[in-house]
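TASK: fixed-backbone design
INPUT:
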């Protein structure tokens, strides 16, 4: 299978931080969430994938062909959308639209205005007069207006209220359905992307600790809980945290039968897997 976007042995070294080596395959027509705590290396990896800047070592492929990050035409099919919005602050929204549209041959005027109207962004005001949420929505539309095939979004919903967040994801789902593209979203807030993403990449300390289809990963584990006085011994495949209220943890699905009979078993959410496996256990398998 040829994946839409692939990285082999991607590495970046800063003075106090090493990212990778990372191997990843990103499928087409899906949303992939990159989840990790602050400083895990999400931004460094997203930027490496689109060459802003490229990984210091390793190769990135688009539809099976190695990307040459010195080639400016990659900007036609790839976009990196940061949530650090400092754009054209004194322009009116209309002036900014005219400017951004002029930068792209493939700018889709109808699509852009459809979503501008849905998002109710005023166009006659200066950008600095817009609320943070409106700026973030406009920023997203600016990033997608030329209809790129690889969309990298760095913590796109940080600071958005729940309705704006929903609108944001509605747009992304409509976009992916129309464009058959790949969307990669980084976040440190798992609940944000639960139910939205099809694939997930968990990161910790500059490394990818787990990745794959969300449903498959959820099937690999079970969440268990016990009264707090019933301790459970952690061992390979079993991670538990005891609080005053209960002992709770995750277990590899194939080891469920080895737990005490009175455990309550549930299917874990992505958030459970992030908390127990990625952040606490590191590696249960
Ligand atoms: N240009 C740089 N020079 C030196 N160190 C850097 C540089 N950029 C990032 N780092 C370091 O690399 C590490 C990973 O940063 P990165 O921004 O990739 O993490 P992140 O997971 O996106 O974090 P956050 O969720 O806080 O945005 C951090 O320790 C950061 O200080």
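OUTPUT:
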């Amino acid at each position: 299978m040829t994946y839409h976007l692939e990285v082999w042995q991607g590495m970046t070294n800063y003075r106090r931080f090493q990212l990778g080596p990372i191997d990843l395959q990103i499928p087409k027509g899906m949303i992939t969430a990159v989840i990790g705590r602050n400083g895990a290396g999400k931004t460094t990896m997203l930027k490496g994938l689109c060459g802003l800047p490229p990984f210091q070592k390793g190769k990135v492929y688009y539809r099976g062909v190695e990307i040459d990050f010195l080639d400016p035409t990659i900007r036609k099919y790839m976009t990196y959308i940061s949530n650090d919005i400092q754009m054209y602050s004194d322009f009116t929204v209309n002036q900014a639209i005219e400017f951004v549209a002029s930068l792209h041959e493939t700018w889709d005027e109808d699509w852009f205005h459809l979503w501008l109207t849905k998002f109710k962004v005023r166009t006659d005001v200066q950008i600095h007069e817009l609320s943070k949420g409106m700026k973030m929505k406009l920023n997203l539309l600016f990033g997608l207006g030329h209809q790129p095939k690889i969309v990298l979004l760095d913590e796109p919903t940080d600071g958005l209220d729940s309705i704006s967040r929903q609108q944001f994801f509605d747009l992304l789902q409509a976009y992916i359905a129309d464009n058959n593209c790949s969307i990669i979203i980084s976040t440190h807030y798992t609940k944000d992307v639960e139910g939205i993403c099809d694939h997930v990449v968990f990161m910790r300390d500059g490394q990818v600790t787990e990745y794959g289809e969300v449903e498959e990963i959820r099937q690999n584990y079970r969440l268990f809980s016990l009264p707090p006085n019933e301790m459970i011994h952690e061992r390979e495949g079993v991670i538990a945290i005891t609080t005053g209220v209960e002992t709770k943890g995750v277990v590899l699905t194939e080891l469920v039968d080895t737990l005490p009979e009175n455990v309550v078993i549930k299917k874990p959410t992505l958030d459970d897997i992030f908390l127990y496996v990625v952040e606490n256990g590191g590696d249960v398998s």
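COMMENT: The pocket of adenosine-5'-triphosphate is lined by residues 14-15, 17, 36, 38-44, 188 (CB under 6 Å).
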